[in-house]
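Support request, please re-run this one:
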Amino acid sequence: MLLIKVFNKDAINTDLKSKTKQDAFEELLEAIQNVQPELNTEEALEALTARESQMSTGIMPHVAVPHALCPSARGAIGAIGISRSGIDYNALDGSPVHLIFMLLANPESCSQSLRVLKHLAQLLDTPQFAADLIRKRTVEEIQGMLNLQNLAKAPMLAAG
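Re-run finished. Output below.
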């Protein structure tokens, strides 16, 4: 699974303006809807909020990976957002979030979304990956970094 297929260039925001988790969700859902106009953003927001109520997806310092199943999503689709000032996210460690990987998937694409989440977890476990991504200023730089990571993980991705 190529991450740049899930995280389309038109759904990457290198300068989120949001200050709260809710506003960040809405800002990133708008970006996803630019790629998939048929996405029901109200349904997606409700699914993300319900998932978030179970446990914060602010999983590590400065990084959040909100994800949910959303029937109106076509396949697995995501957005990446970078906040220069940080977002009050109610993260597990209490730190502001600067990097968000949002992932939505149609229930029929659940296995695809799990592979994406697994790949993201492996990348985020790599020393400096998140910090390097946060420093990127352009969509092209972020896509280039995701492409490099895809190439490095190609054997793992082929295995599923």
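Confidence is low (pLDDT under 50) at residues 154-160. The beta strands are 12-13, 63-64, 67-69, 76-87, 97-105.
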